[in-house]
Design goal:
Elements (H helix, E strand, L loop, with lengths): L10 H11 L8 E2 L14 E2 L5 E4 L48 E4 L2 H12 L6 E8 L2 E9 L7 H12 L7 E7 L13 H12 L4 E8 L3 E4 L10 E2 L7 H8 L18 H16 L3 H17 L6 H11 L2 H10 L7 H5 L9 H14 L5 H17 L3 H14 L4 H11 L23
Parallel strand pairs: 3-4, 7-8
Antiparallel strand pairs: 1-2, 5-6, 5-7, 8-9, 9-10
Helix pairs in contact: 2-5, 3-4, 6-8, 7-8, 7-9, 11-12, 12-13, 12-14, 13-14
Length: 446
């Protein structure tokens, strides 16, 4: 993400930059979400990669077998970004950081397992969404979530968009899908979004990919997509809580949020916090540019290397540094721990894999710093958090953080350009490669 000076190019040049970067990316595992009100025809595509091998034993057009029982029920808790609820993370090595752990095999045997897998992979229960999972024989590859089309007549363009992302998984030979919607199917009539699925079937067939099976997930029940509404094949959605896969994920420390909407903590004593940040900004502005940059980088590096949260005073210094575009961009580029050109790092186009545990810790640090600032200085902090979410494949949350940044400062250029970039469908390059993508499931926990 270049500085404001580097970003002084006009809108046409910036859009050209996005267009030129997009072909450089080869795809992998995706989802697409948006929680806040979105612009028309805007969608966010987000990557999800499974670290451990999962095999699917869910045969085409198979009716629902008896569900497995799990030892525990799923806990649905609200998403919390409150720093008081964040715990410092001991840095853990992810695949792609020089460690290749043993691959565990998890087997999906029931439709409830499929829905549990989707929820834990995305981190939340989808709403008004199409979710597709790519398969290579019985091995799971990519997971894509995208908002369902809202206007009639868009089925074919929508299907082409979905197929574009799914076929970036070059090993895919088939998919399974799930439609999540509150629309109620009527007996004797086509399922909701049948035109979309028909278009997708044809577009994928032209690419040599077949649809193995589909699920229709309503508010209370789910059933085979090609099943007759109201038949005995429908099962309650809460039956996913007792699936074997759900129990395994919960045991590993995963849980499913009810939505992907973020919640930020409230702040107080804004005047005092603003004064503290302004004091450090004056100090930074009085220094030679390179000295200020190096001091800011050292402060940030010390925080990233620590396993404890910084003091309020250090948070004020960090926030002050983020107010200067040249320092801000360099600090964001320092997060992944990759020694490559800054432009390549910011657009997630590096050859080396980022250090995801370091990126996760950076997000916790920024969330910790946020309540220690005032609204007038919050935009750079929220924008940096949004950028991290884009790196990790959380497009919906990235959009929300960027919108929150614009709420505090409608003229904040970096947040606006970043939101336009994400809204165009640009996916972080790291997440388009299985060796560098963010691993969302907590299988590396002890």
């Amino acid at each position: 993400m270049p500085s404001d000076n580097l970003m002084s190019m006009d809108k046409q040049k910036y859009e050209l930059l996005v267009i030129l970067i997009r072909p450089m990316i080869a795809g992998r595992v995706l989802r697409a979400t948006r929680a806040l009100p979105r612009r028309p025809r805007t969608e966010n595509f987000i990557i999800r990669t499974v670290k451990h091998r999962l095999e699917l034993k869910f045969s085409p057009r198979r009716r629902f077998p008896k569900l497995h029982s799990g030892p525990s029920t799923q806990r649905m808790v609200p998403y919390q970004n409150d720093a008081r609820n964040q715990q410092p993370q001991t840095p853990q090595q992810h695949e792609g950081e020089g460690k290749h752990g043993n691959m565990e095999k998890l087997t999906i045997t029931t439709p409830s397992d499929v829905l549990s897998f989707i929820g834990h992979t995305l981190g939340f229960w989808p709403q008004e969404s199409l979710v597709c999972i790519t398969l290579n024989e019985n091995s799971i590859g990519a997971t894509l979530r995208i908002d369902l089309p809202r206007q009639p007549g868009q089925e074919l363009p929508y299907a082409r968009t979905v197929a574009h992302y799914l076929t970036s998984d070059t090993t895919a030979t088939s998919i399974i899908f799930a439609i999540y919607t509150s629309e109620i199917p009527q007996p004797g009539q086509a399922r909701p979004h049948a035109g979309t699925i028909a278009a997708l079937t044809g577009v994928l067939a032209a690419q040599g990919i077949t649809i193995r099976d589909g699920l229709f997930v309503g508010d209370e029940t789910f059933s085979p997509y090609d099943g007759e509404p109201g038949t005995s094949l429908a099962l309650p959605v809460n039956s996913t809580q007792t699936s074997a896969i759900n129990a395994e994920f919960i045991y590993r420390g995963s849980y499913i949020e009810p939505t992907d909407r973020i919640t930020l903590p409230s702040t107080n004593q804004e005047a005092a916090k603003a004064a503290a940040v302004e004091h450090h900004m004056n100090t930074i502005a009085s220094q030679p540019a390179n000295d200020a940059l190096q001091q800011g980088r050292k402060l940030w590096a010390d925080m990233l290397d620590s396993n404890t949260f910084p003091s309020d005073a250090d948070c004020h210094v960090l926030i002050a540094n983020l107010q200067f575009p040249a320092i801000r961009d360099r600090l964001i580029a320092d997060i992944p721990g990759v020694d490559e050109p800054m432009q390549q790092i910011l657009f997630a186009q590096t050859e080396a894999a980022p250090k995801w545990s370091r990126i996760e810790w950076a997000q916790q640090l920024l969330l910790h710093a946020y309540p220690r600032t005032s609204a007038e200085h919050a935009a750079p902090v929220l924008t940096a958090i949004g950028y991290i979410n884009w790196w990790e494949g959380r497009g919906s949350q990235a959009h929300q953080f960027l919108q929150l940044a614009l709420d505090t400062d409608p003229a904040y250029r970096l947040a606006r350009l970043s939101d336009q970039m994400i809204g165009s469908g640009l996916v972080a390059g790291w997440n388009m490669n299985k060796d560098t993508a963010y691993k969302s499931l907590p299988f590396d926990l002890p």
